[in-house]
Amino acid sequence: GGIGLDTSKELLKRDLKNLVILDRIKNPAAIAELKALNPKVCVTFYPYDVTVPIAETSKLLKTIFAQLKTIDVLINGAGILDDHQIERTIAVNYTGLVNTTTAIMEFWDKRKCGPGGIICNIGSVTGFNAIYQVPVYSGTKAAVVNFTSSLAKLAPITGVTAYTVNPGITRTTLVQKFNSWLDVEPQVAKKLLAHPTQPPLACAENFVKAIELNQNGALWKLDLGTLEAIKWCKHWDSGI
What we know:
CATH topology: Rossmann fold
Shape: globular
CATH class: Alpha Beta
Number of helices: 8
CATH architecture: 3-Layer(aba) Sandwich
């Protein structure tokens, strides 16, 4: 749903061979709609919860790779926004993303004679500057930015490139109503939506543009219908 569904529709306007959708929620109507958009593309669905142990993720990926042989791009897009659910927010937004990425390295890592691949992680503008009333959610998105930047720097070793797409506030069900941390601002959703936002389709169009540009290490900001590359300021360097 939301950005994910609209982005899938945009992807199907391109010359794809396969589109594999992994989601916790089954939505046969949405899958049927996607299949009808471009009959030349094989659209498949597998049930998947990103919070499962990494061994289960690896097992599912083995099934998918056995079917398709090759996968070019992994888009990590699962996310929730509810700072009452602290552990689940971290599990879905960050741990699940790290585990899924780690699991696919078994098939992609050039040190294991893999072909390499591309990781596209969905972050958020809150990964740059937090919505301070939802510090748990914002913290997970900052973690996604840092993790992905590290993946990009490891590309010469692994053969796997990575970048983030970081949407601004997009009018999806995610932001219509959500809980702030310790209820510090019960009206956080209402106050947030009082400011300019973007529709999911505008975000999806720029999302696919970022995929097509395919720039290792890029930090893309997708806000108010625009696509902008963010230059990260270096305040410290490990030196190694």
